[in-house]
Hints:
This is 50S ribosomal protein L4. The chain is of the alpha/beta class. It has helices at about 20-25, 30-45, 100-120, 135-145, 160-165, 180-185, 195-205; strands spanning about 1-5, 10-15, 120-125, 150, 170-175, 190-195. A six-stranded mixed beta sheet has the order 2-1-3-6-4-5. The protein is elongated, with a radius of gyration of 27 Å.
Amino acid sequence: MKLDVIKLDGGKAGSVDLSDDLFGLEPRADILHRVVRWQRNKAQAGTHKVKTRSETSYSTKKIYRQKGTGGARHGDRNAPIFRKGGIYKGPTPRSHGHELPKKFRKLGLRHALSAKAKAGELVVIDSAEADGKTAALAKQVKNLGWKRALIIDGAEVNEGFAKAARNIEGLDVLPSMGANVYDILKRDTLVITKAGVEALEDRLK
């Protein structure tokens, strides 16, 4: 698969051959769904917590005598049956993450890249470098028509480019190792540098 390479100023910079194993697959929604679900579950905080009857602030005194009242036999007011008592089997801090094979995660990333390529939302740029000025980069991004874009660079992101991009709304920048299915699908345009293409091919071969 051949794709034109452009510069940040909109000029042409030749073309690049993209591997069909990464960018030429028929995207499968079920694979993408499973990988995104794994990512989101792993990221969930899981810090929700309720108080059990041993943790609620109330007297532990027996509220009335055991026999002779004609009512139910109760101990203290911390019992779940009472208002402001402890919660029975409520949520406690835990991990929501689950296992997903490494091969399947790689497959999901391939399908995400292929989905962007098939939809015509994949752009390859020569390099992602800037002098750290947000205004100049914002103008270039606007001229290129990128409203919600993810830029994937090589092993490391250029420091000046990262500094210039961090205050532009709708623009995310990641190194190749940070490329993931959720962030790729979340943005309308996927922009990859030539170094990023090589790094992804090495990572997913």
